[in-house]
Design brief:
The chain has about 250 residues and is α/β, with parallel strands linked by helices. It has a single domain, classed as Alpha-Beta Barrel (TIM Barrel), CATH 3.20.20. A six-stranded parallel sheet has the order 4-5-6-7-8-9, with helices on both faces. A three-stranded parallel sheet has the order 1-2-3. Strand 2, helix 2 and strand 3 form a beta-alpha-beta unit. Helix 8 packs across helix 9. The chain is globular, with a radius of gyration of 17 Å. It starts with 5 loop residues before the first strand and ends with a helix.
Amino acid sequence: MLWPNKIDAHSHLSFLQSEQVDKLIDNSETLFIQGGYDLEDFKAQLKIKNKYPDRIQISGGLHPWTFKEKSVEQIEQEWIDLKSLIAQNMCFVGETGFDKSVPVPKDVQYKYFCEHLELAKKLDRPLVCHIYGHHDLALKALKDLSGPWRGIIHGFSGSPELAKDYIIMGFLISVGPGVLKPNYKNLVKSLQTIEVEKLVVESDQPTEPGSPYLSGMLDQVSAKIAEIKGVSPEEVLQNSNKNLEGLLL
């Protein structure tokens, strides 16, 4: 495969209209790795993948936010359908994980996180993990199910100790627009300790349906990481690409 100039470790092109996707693909040399949200989102990703097979890597999963929007029965059925589609398409597994802002019992989030882990292990596929809070539960599941794991911890903003724990588990630390915020002090400390061989760069764009894909976000994030680590933006992007290529093979 001929790799593009940039790989976006985490994006949501399914949030765009088809003509917006066409324009984005036509005006960039980027490969876009997706985060999955639910069954409907996965089907939307498939349509883009069918049109641009070399420019998008799809991902299937139940995002923690979906648990506040749907009934238990809906979630169970969607997961059955998603597991089948993920197996057929051999894609990334996720987004999966925890979100402390979601008014859903932790045991429900834990149950489905474990099911995503078991599927990724069975299919030998990379994971896309969304973990906002409840890191203790995430690490417990990863240890109890005992990998080996590979994939990304998307939108990481935690401590150096947390970063080390996930890296030991086999994950890459994915950094996005959060690094541009002045209050993300833990992330700055973490980036000072994480080797570039364990870092990847994401846009996390668009942020929601109806919002645009900000094409300069990868460059902004890379430049900020480079400033923190005392390296060049090119080195950050090149290492990110190399790390992600290992997941895409």
